[in-house]
Amino acid sequence: MFWLYFGMIILLPIYAQFKVKSTYNKYSKVRSTSGMTGAQVARLILDQNGLHDVKVVESKGFLSDHYNPMTKIVALSSSNYHEASVAGTAVAAHEVGHAIQDKEDYSFLRFRHRLAPVANLTSNASWVFIMIGLIFSSMNSLLGIGILLMAVGVVFQVVTLPVEFNASSRAMDQIVELGVIRNDEEPYAKKVLSAAAMTYVAATAVAVLELLRLVLIFVNRD
Fold first, then answer.
1. Which of 21, 49, 110, 170 is most enclosed, with most CB atoms within 10 A?
2. According to the model, what pLDDT value does residue 5 have?
């Protein structure tokens, strides 16, 4: 049982990171037949969806791509911004998918944005209570408080999953409908998006397992 738990919380995230990097590196070398850079793909999809006020900028760092709903900016890492690859097309479309969610007031995205500052606060504070509760068995109530605080962060992780999967679904719909990729390129783009989604699945699985482990400790002490 211990080794299964160890494998889940340690090996699963490592595998997910390996998978996304290897898949991205593979298809970043496959030039898209449209010849459009990630920046051009993002701009095309944004304009087609009436999001002319959303800017597309270059972001430093490897796979630092993201959408900021506060500033209305789609930021693409340098390779995706400048190069015309299947991987760059998929990633750019995914981030624009978040912008479309924002425009349409997608419920899970809105809930995640509202929960984010609370989750950041409770996740950091939770370990103070948890560590004290674990060290001093007489302070089991502090462990309980820590578990409740951690649960907020776990809810945030769970809510992130439909947000990311929905953005990827929107991305595929857009690049297919607009003719950005050909039929034979669709499986490649899906592989890139699926590999990226795995990192969120792995993070959520680890968070849920850790929460369950602490709950069992708390219950057994009582």
1. 170
2. 66
